[in-house]
Amino acid sequence: MLICQHKYASKLAAGGFFDQPKFCDKLKTEMKEIFSVETTITKIEDQSTLENMIIIEFKSKDQIANDTALEALKILLASVMTKLVDQNIGQWVKYKNCTRIIQAYADQNEYLQILCSHEEIGILISYFSKDKSTVLPTLCTTDAFLDKMLQKFLFTDISLPCISDLTTTNKSYLVQAILNLQNKIQTQNVFIMLELRCIHLFGLIDTARGIEKQIEEIKIKHASTTVELVLEQKQIKFLLDIHSDDLRALETNYNDTTIIKTLQKKKITAPNYAHDIIEKKIYVLASLCKPMDFEILEEDFGLIAHNECDNLKTIGRQYKCQIEIQSETKNKIYDIPTALVQDHISNKLTASAIEIHKNDLAEQEVDLVVICSTSMYLRDDILRRAGESAQQEYETISKRSSLEPFETNSGNLSCRRLLFLPWEINVTSQDAFYQSIRNFVSKAIQHAIKVHHTSIAFPSIGCGKLSVDKNIVANEMLVEAQAQLLSANVLLQINFVILPEQNDVFEAFQMKLENLQRGDLETKNFQIAYNFSTLKITIMSSSIEKQEECKKALNEYVKKSIFTCVPKHQQVLKRWTQPAINAFYKYCFDRNVVPDINIVVGSCKLFGLKAAVGDAENEYYREHIKQSEQARLIAIARDIIWAFQIDDNTWIKYKSELNALIEDAYSSKSLTFSYSDDDSVKYTIDFEQSIEICEKAQLQRKIIRNHGFDLPPYWAVQTENIAQFPVDENSTEYNEIRALFDTTMTNNYTVMHRIERIQNKQWYMQYNSYKSFSPKKNTEKKLFHGCPKESAQLIINSFFNRSFAGINGTAYGRGAYFSANAKYSNGYTKVTTSDAKKYMFVAYVLVGDCVRGNTNMKTPPAGFDSTTDGDHIFVTYRDDQAYAAYLIVYQ
Questions:
Q1: What are phi and psi for residue 371, nearest 5 degrees?
Q2: 525 burial class (0-12, 13-18, 19+ CB within 10 angstroms)?
Q3: How far apart are CA 712 and CA 710, in angstroms?
Q4: Residue 491 near residue 587 (C-beta atoms within 8 A)
Q5: Residue 439 belongs to a domain
Q6: Contact present, 758 and 885 (Cβ < 8 Å)
Q7: 869 and 752 in one domain?
Q8: Spatial contact of 722 and 797, defined as CB atoms under 8 Å apart
Q9: Strand pairing partners for 819?
Q10: Model confidence pLDDT, tens digit, residues 203-212
Q11: Whole-number Å distance between alpha carbons of 447 and 451
C-alpha cells in the first residue's frame, strides 16, 4: 500500500478541487477503473502551519499499480490551468451570482470538473488540461470546450413599466406576480435581479428564455391601459375637491391604477379587468343635483370674510359638498377718535420749541447741526466751510464706521458741534419710507438729549435732488420732532433750516408747524379703511339633504365666528393720548378687528374673529397699563428727580423711566438698585451711601434725590401748564418788580401797561431742578431781557434759547443775553407802527462762575457757567439756567 501525501493551501486551485465531493468521487472511480487501486482522500490540519493538508492513500497489493496511480495523479495535478472570463464577453461577468450559476451547472455535469471564482478582473475558471494530462481524460477538459459551455448561457434584460420599487411593500399586481415568480425560480440555476424599470436574467438559454416568457406573460396580464371618461369640468372639479379620498381609495384597492393625476384630462389608467368597476364608481361619485345658491348677509362677518373662504370650503367637504364663493369687496371708512387728553399745552409747548428758518444750515448758531452724511453735496459743502480740523476729524471717524451717528468739532462754523447721521432710506413700502424719515429725526434728537445739547438744527432731507414730496417730509420730520420732545420731557430747541430758494418747502414746513403750535396733532392716520366682503355661495353636492345640512352648518359657523368684546376699565380711555389711540387702531386693523371707541363717553367694543379679538383685548389692557405707567413716570419726574454727579459743578438727571425705577426701589426700602446703560454697562446704586458704582470700572459717583419743588405760594391757580396773570398794582410783588425796572428806566418810558407773572410749570421745574443740583445756588440774579413782540410769546411758551443771541449780539459769547440794566435791555426791544408797546422780561438767572466772554465762544470755558462783559451783561448757555418770571409791557 502506497500513501501519497500532497499539501495544498486552500487558495490554490488544485487544493480547491479536493473540496468538491464530485471531483473526489470521480477521482476514486477513475483510479479503480484504470489502475485497480482503492483510493482514500483525507483532509487534516497541519499543526505547525495550521493549514489544511490532504492525504491521498492508494491501497493496492500491487505496488506497481500504486506507483502508476501516484504518477498519474501528479501529472493531473500539474495540468491545472486557469481561464479568465472578463467583461469583453459580456456585462454579466460583473455579477457574482453569474459565477455561482456557472459553477452550479458544472457541478451537475459528471464529466465537467471546473472550479469558478469571482474576482475584480472577471471570472476565473480552473480546470485540468487534456493537453497536459492524458492518463485521466475524464477529469480533464479544454479551453475550447469551456468556450462552448459559456455559449450555453444567456444574459438578457427585460424592460418593465415605470414602477416605484420591486419590493413586497409595493402592492401592484404586476410587482407581486414578478416577486412570486422570483421565489419560484430560486431553486433553478438561474440568476434574476430586479431593478426600477428592468429585470436582469442569467442562466442556461432554455431556462432563461422560459423565465423571460413567463415575465412577458405577467406583463401582458397585468398591463394597465388608459380610457377616457365622459365628464363635465365641474364634475371633475367636484371629484377632486370633495371625493379625493374616495379616488385614492380606488387607486389603493385596484393596484396599478392612476386616477387623480390624469382626471383633469378626463382619463384614468387601470388594469383592463378593473376598468368597468372603476368607471362605474367614478360616475356615481360625480353625479350632481341642482346647485344651491345663497348669500351671507351678516355685515360683521364681511370684515373677515376674505380670510374665511378656505374654512367655509372645509366645512363643505365635511358634508361632501363643494363650495364655490364669489366675493365682492367694498371699503368702509372708520374715523379714529380724537383724544380727550390732547394736552394742547404740552403740544403747544413742544411745538414752540420748534422753529423753521429760511437760511443757511452752516450759519446756525446752535449746539448741534445735523448733517445727512448720505447726501454728498450737503456733507462736502459743510465740511469745506468748517475747515481743515473738522475735515480731518470726519475722515478719521468715518473710516471706523460711516453708518453710526458721530460728532465732530464745528471748525469755522457758528454751531458748537456737527452730527453726521446717515439717512437709511427704506422704499419697500410707503410706511417704511415714512418711517425712515422719522428714524433720521429720532436718532438725532435722542443723541442730542443723551449728550445734553440744548439746541439742534436739521436740514430738510429729501427735498433736493431726491424730489420727495415736501408735504410728506414736513409732516414726518415735524411730527417726529414733537413726539420726541413729548416723550423726553426736556427743553430742546429744534430748528429746521430751509434753503432760501426753496419757498415751497419753507411754506410746507411753516404750515405744518402752525398746526402743531395750535395744538393740532398728527392727522395722517385719523381715518382707517377696512375691507368688507360680501360672499355669494354656491353649494354643489350629489344630495339635496347634504346641501341643506351644509348650508345650516355654514350659517352657524358665520354666527360663531364674529365675537364681540367689551373690555373693562373703559374710563381710562379718556386719558389715552392720540398716538396711543392711533397705534391701537392700527393693531386692530392688522388683525381685522374693528374697534368701536367713544372717547367722550369712555366706551369700547371690539368685534372680529374670536382669537383676534382676544389679542386686541390683551393689547387694550397692555396700552392701559402703559398709559398709566407713563402718567406715573411723568408725575414722578415732576416731583422727584434723581441725578448723578459728573464733576464739582455738574449733575446729570437720569432718564424719566430710569428715574421712576430708582424711586420705586428707594420707596420700597431697597438698599441697592442695579441697571444697565445703553452700552450694557452695569451700575449699582447704594441708597445708604448715596453713590453709584460702575461694576466694570469700579468707579463711584455721587447721587442725589431732590423732591417737592413746590410752586411759589403767590402763583394763581391755573388749569393749564402755561398761564399769564396780571400782577396786582397794589401788591408788594408788583412794587418790587416795578422798582427794579425803574432803577435805570425812570424817565425812559411814558406808560406802564402791565406786569404779567409767567407761570410755566414745566420750565419752572426744569430751572429749579438745575438750581438744586448746582453748587452755586447763591448766584441767582434777577436780570432783564428785551426782545421784539414776536419773540416774547415764543419765550413764554418755551425758554431763552441761544438762537436769540443774534437779537442781543454775540460780543460776549453765542448764548442767551441778559442784563442787570433794564435801560440797556430796552435797546433790544422793537416797536411797530401798529403797536408801540415794548416787551421786556425779568428772569431768574443762575450765572454761577462768570468769565469775560468773546465773540468766538460757543460754550463757557471749563470750570465756568456763563460769560460776561465784566459789568452788567451775562450770557448763559443752558436752557434751564434761566427762567422768565415776569413780562413787563410798557411804552
A1: -115, 125
A2: middle
A3: 6
A4: no
A5: yes
A6: yes
A7: yes
A8: yes
A9: 784, 873
A10: 999 999 999 9
A11: 6
Q: What is the DSSP letter of 888?
A: E
DSSP string, 341-385: ---HHHHHHHHHTEEEEES-GGG--SSEEEEETT-HHHHHHHHHH
Residue 848 domain-assigned? Answer: yes
Q: Determine the Cα–Cα distance for residues 851 and 387; give it in Å rounded to an integer.
A: 28
Residues 867 and 835 in one domain: yes
- Residue 742 placed within a domain: yes
In tens, the pLDDT along 400-425 reads 766 778 999 999 998 989 999 999 88
Q: Which pairs from 695-704 meet CB under 8 Å and 24+ separation?
A: 701/644, 701/645, 701/646, 702/644, 702/645, 703/642, 703/643, 703/644, 703/645, 704/642, 704/643, 704/644, 704/645, 704/651, 704/772, 704/773
User: Rg of the Cα trace of the chain?
Assistant: 51
pLDDT at 160: 80
In degrees to the nearest 10, what's the CA dihedral of 765, 766, 768, 769?
Answer: 110
* Cα–Cα distance for residue pair 67/78, rounded to 1 Å: 17
3-state secondary structure 796-862: HHCCCCHHHHHHHCCCCCCCEEEECCHHHHHCCCCCCCCCCCEEEEEEEEECCCEEECCCCCCCCCC
pLDDT in tens, 288-318: 889 999 888 777 788 778 778 889 999 999 9
Rounded Cα–Cα distance for residues 385 and 395 (Å)? 15
Specify the pLDDT at position 617: 86
Do residues 594 and 587 make contact, with C-beta atoms less than 8 angstroms apart?
no
**Largest CA-CA distance found in the chain, in angstroms, rounded:** 172
Residues 660 and 749 in one domain: no
pLDDT grade, residue 347 (50/70/90)? low
Element (H, E) at 128: strand 122-128
Burial class (CB in 10 A: 0-12, 13-18, 19+), 630: middle
Which of 464, 489, 520 delimits the end of a domain?
520
| Structural contact between residues 485 and 350, judged by C-beta atoms closer than 8 angstroms | yes
Among 707, 732, 759, where does a domain finish? 707
User: CA-CA distances (angstroms) from residue 652 to 676, 849, 887?
Assistant: 16, 19, 30
Dig out the grid coordinates for 685 from the structure: 446704586
pLDDT digits (tens, 9 = 90+) for 622-656: 888 777 776 666 666 666 778 888 776 667 778 77
Q: Do residue 682 and residue 735 come from a single domain?
A: no
Burial class of residue 181, CB neighbours in 10 A (0-12, 13-18, 19+):
middle
Residue in 519, 447, 504, 505 with CA at minimum distance from that of residue 477:
505
Q: What CATH number corresponds to the domain at position 677?
A: 3.30.720.50
Helix (H, G, I), strand (E, B) or coil at 876: strand
- Decide: 456 and 415 in contact? Cβ < 8 Å: no
Q: How far apart (Å, rounded) are the C-alpha atoms in residues 213 and 180? A: 15
Q: Residue 5 — pLDDT band, cuts 50, 70, 90?
A: very low
Residue 429 contacts by C-beta under 8 Å, 6 or more apart in sequence?
none
548 inside domain: no
The pLDDT value given to residue 333: 82
Q: Is 227 helix (H, G, I), strand (E, B) or coil?
A: strand
Q: Does residue 781 sit in the same domain as residue 833?
A: yes
688 with 826, same domain: the answer is no
Distance of alpha carbon 640 from alpha carbon 283, whole angstroms: 84
Q: Which of 745, 723, 732 is nearest to 891 (CA)?
A: 745
- Number of domains making up the chain: 4
Cβ-contact 849, 865 below 8 angstroms? yes
What's the domain range around 191? 154-222
Same domain, residue pair 667 and 727: no
Angle between helices 544-561 and 305-318 (to 10 degrees): 140
Residues 370 and 493 in one domain: yes
